[in-house]
Amino acid sequence: MKTGTVKFFNESKGFGFIIDSETKEEYFVHVTGLVDNVQEGDTVKFELKEGRKGLNAISVERV
Predict the structure, then answer these.
(1) CA–CA dist 51, 36 (Å, integer)
(2) What mean pLDDT is predicted for residues 24-46?
(3) What is the structure's pLDDT at 23?
(4) Which of left, alpha, beta for 11 (phi over 0: left; psi -120 to 50: alpha)?
(5) Where does the CSD domain lie (predicted)?
(6) What is the pLDDT of residue 14?
(7) What is the DSSP letter of 35?
(8) What angle do CA 33, 34, 39 make, to 5 degrees?
(9) Rg for the chain, CA atoms, rounded
């Protein structure tokens, strides 16, 4: 699993972005990919899955 930080998450719209700790790449995350509720600044671990517009973070859990 990868680790990163939640850059942004809009609860009312159900999506946000995570920045990978190692590569500094930014990944889209949808509420359906969350295991735990997340907030801006949370440290998380996640997996990546190919989505319609690139890689998406899935199985997102707070660390």
Answers:
(1) 20
(2) 97
(3) 98
(4) alpha
(5) 1-62
(6) 97
(7) S
(8) 130
(9) 10
